[in-house]
Amino acid sequence: MAFTASAFRRILSGSSSQSLNIRSQFASIRLNSTLVTLTTPKLFISGLSRNTTDENLFKAFAPFGRLHEAKVIIDRGSGRSKGFGFVTYKTVEEAEKAREGMNAKFLDGWVIFVDPARPREAQPRPPPRQDFQSNPQSMETGFTTNKTVGWCG
Known about the structure:
Blueprint: H1 5-13, H2 17-29, H3 31-34, E1 42-46, H4 54-61, E2 67-74, E3 81-89, H5 92-102, E4 105-107, E5 110-116, H6 136-141
Antiparallel strand pairs: 1-3, 1-5, 2-3, 4-5
Region (Disordered): 118-153
InterPro entries: Nucleotide-bd_a/b_plait_sf (IPR012677), RBD_domain_sf (IPR035979), RRM_dom (IPR000504)
Keywords: RNA-binding
């Protein structure tokens, strides 16, 4: 299927029958995610534009119920959006309505997907660094000594 610029504009604006076809294809991609019942009012939003802010996310999800929080996750190093976020409602029913209403929809020009949020998994801690010089003093005190003796000239 070849796209021209005008066809692409029609799809994004929703003024074409092709637009409905493509939107239904996006919806079928995540059909299995709608089969999972919500147990928490927190939703995971993926596919966000790098330009989406907390305010834009809040405005997009506000019509579906009383929002507690809308947060876009930001990369610490670059300060840019990581492309996903979380939305928390007051009740599970409101979250379910939002998931049905916003899944596979356009937000800031990108198709977003709405899934139930899962609890964060505990990250295993790396083992402590071992001093490979097998210096018994370094194991007890945490300091290492330089055993090199010589002259610098």
